[in-house]
Amino acid sequence: MEPISTALAGIALFKSAVDGIKGAISTANDVGEIAGYLDNLFEGEKQVQQRRNQKSGVGSVGDQFGIKTVAQEIIDAKLAQEQMQEIASMVDMRFGHGTWRSIVDERAKRIREAKEAEAAARKAALQKQKEFEESLKQALMIGGSIIVALALFIFLFVTIAQATAFTLSIL
Fold it and tell me: Cα dist. 36→88, 99, 106 in Å?
């Protein structure tokens, strides 16, 4: 997806999530009933922020750094921030003070754990790759040593055979 269409999709996703939460919050019995909307809300907000923080863009320099583009990105980010605060207040009012903070903290914890798990998996894969390379190097060294020993053994037999043949030819 192009960066511009990604930003538009992020804004649309964010707005639809806000509308969905506002429509469902009064009848929701628990946070799980609006969880899908919350996922969309966070994903849309992430896309809006990524678009705003993106340094390189598609199009001309005027499109990237023009007042309209810069203003739109900042306004979209501010609107998203305002609506996020509004949703936070609505969730806290409906489900009790601190609910929103708990959701945000748990989400951040899970994201951090996922990144740590990914880093650990990369580290394990790198370690496994190094071990494989070391094993391959050792196997090649052992194989090379065997080939050299075998070549010397054959050379020894050939030399002995030639010496024996030479000795027999002289007698």
Answer: 15, 16, 16
